[in-house]
Specification:
By secondary structure, the chain is mostly beta strands. The chain is built from no helices and eleven strands.
Length: about 120
């Protein structure tokens, strides 16, 4: 059974950085990071195709966030720089096992993590 586990969330001042990590996924076609503010729709922040490394980013995070895989452990990472107050949310790792689920934006994951909170203070 797939169990995605995120880590790395926390509190940071605006302008600071955090790196989220996700482990526990098996064979996937693509991986993604989503975020959700309570009461609002969950939105995709970034995604990466596992075979090609091709990435996609939401316009709101382009140039500030980087999605990647740790070369040693295979963990999914989200490097978040120049954090802003409106980046505060619960961040979720997600994995899609089939290529057709990776063709759209947002991707359509099979599996989700439990979420990790990111709080940015102004």
């Amino acid at each position: 059974q797939v169990r995605l586990v995120e880590s790395g969330g926390g509190s940071v001042q605006a302008g600071g950085s955090l790196t989220l990590s996700c482990v526990g996924f098996g064979t996937t076609e693509c991986l993604g990071w989503f975020r959700q503010v309570r009461g609002l729709k969950r939105e995709q922040v970034a995604s990466i195709r596992t075979a090609t490394g091709n990435t996609r980013y939401a316009d709101s995070v382009k140039g500030r966030f980087t999605i990647s895989r740790d070369s040693a452990t295979g963990a999914l990472l989200l490097q978040m720089n120049s954090l802003r107050y409106d980046d505060s949310a619960t961040y979720y790792c997600a994995a899609a096992r089939y290529a057709r689920r990776c063709e759209s934006t947002p991707i359509s994951p099979n599996d989700w993590g439990q979420g990790t909170q990111v709080t940015v203070s102004s």
